[in-house]
Design goal:
alpha+beta, Lipocalin, 7 helices, 8 strands, Lipoprotein, signal
Length: 237
C-alpha cells in the first residue's frame, strides 16, 4: 500500500502536473489526432494534444533519463523548431503512434536512455492516474476495515483493465497489495499467482537487483522487491 514513487519521480524530473485533461475535442486541424492525453508504453510518459494542434511529450526511460519536446501538429506532422526533426502522429481508435523522420536532432530532446517513439494510449476512465489513485484509496479503507473480500473486488480489476497504461512501479505495488489481500482471504494459490511476475527478482539479493537494474531504477524497485519477498513467504506458508 505504498504511494506511487515512480510517478512522483517522473513529476519531479519533468516538473509536470499530474492532472489529466478533460474529455477530448476533435483537433482543429484535419489529419491530427484528437485532443486529449495519451499514456506512453508501460505508463512511462504522456502525450498531450490541444484542440489547436499544440502538443507536448514527456517520457522517462532507464535510470530516470527523460525526453521532453513540444510543437504544433499540422496534418499529422510537427517539425521541431530550429531542427530537421519531423515528428509523425498516426491516430487509430484510442491510440496514437509517434515516429520521426530519423533526423539526428530528434535525439536532442532525450537523455541517452530515454526515447519517445512508440504507441501512446488514451486511458479508459477507470485507468487515469486520478481514477487509479481513488481506487487505491478506496481499497485501503476496505482493507484497513478488514473487509478483505470487498478490497479484493475493488483492486483486482485495475491490474487487468489498466495493464497498458500503468507504470511498472505502481503495477508492482498493486500486485503486492492484491496478493496480501488474497492471503488474508486464505487464497494462497491466488496470492502466489499474483506475485509470480515478480518472483524472479524477489529471488535475487539486494545486490543482485542493483546489478540487474540501473541505479535510479534499482532505488525505486528495491522496496517493491523486499515487500514481494515478505509476501511470497507468507503465501508459501
Amino acid at each position: 500500500m505504498k504511494s506511487n514513487r515512480y510517478l512522483r519521480l517522473l513529476a519531479a524530473a519533468l516538473a509536470l502536473p499530474c492532472a489529466l485533461l478533460g474529455p477530448a475535442a476533435a483537433s482543429a486541424q484535419a489529419g491530427n489526432p484528437a485532443a486529449g492525453e495519451y499514456i506512453f508504453e508501460r505508463g512511462s510518459g504522456q502525450l498531450r494534444i490541444k484542440a489547436d494542434g499544440h502538443f507536448d511529450i514527456t517520457t522517462i526511460g532507464a535510470n530516470a533519463h527523460t525526453c521532453a519536446l513540444d510543437g504544433t501538429i499540422a496534418r499529422g506532422k510537427a517539425k521541431l523548431d530550429g531542427t530537421d526533426c519531423v515528428v509523425n502522429f498516426a491516430a487509430s481508435a484510442d491510440k496514437v503512434k509517434v515516429t520521426t523522420n530519423g533526423a539526428e536532432q530528434c535525439r536532442d530532446s532525450c537523455g541517452a536512455r530515454a526515447g519517445f517513439e512508440g504507441t501512446y494510449t488514451r486511458p479508459t476512465p477507470g485507468c487515469t492516474d486520478k481514477a487509479v489513485a481513488a481506487t487505491r484509496r478506496n481499497f485501503k479503507r476496505q482493507y484497513d476495515a478488514k473487509n478483505y473480500a470487498a478490497a479484493r473486488t475493488t483492486l483486482a480489476p485495475v491490474l487487468s483493465d489498466c495493464d497498458e497504461t500503468l507504470d511498472w512501479i505502481t503495477k508492482d505495488w498493486i500486485r503486492n497489495d492484491l496478493a496480501l489481500t488474497q492471503y488474508k482471504l486464505d487464497d494462497r494459490a491466488a496470492c502466489l499467482k499474483t506475485l509470480q511476475p515478480l518472483a524472479e527478482d524477489a529471488a535475487l539479493s539486494d545486490e543482485g537487483v542493483k546489478e540487474n537494474y540501473p541505479p535510479a531504477d534499482a532505488e525505486i524497485f528495491l522496496p517493491v522487491v523486499r515487500a514481494t519477498r515478505t509476501n511470497l513467504k507468507l503465501c508459501r506458508g
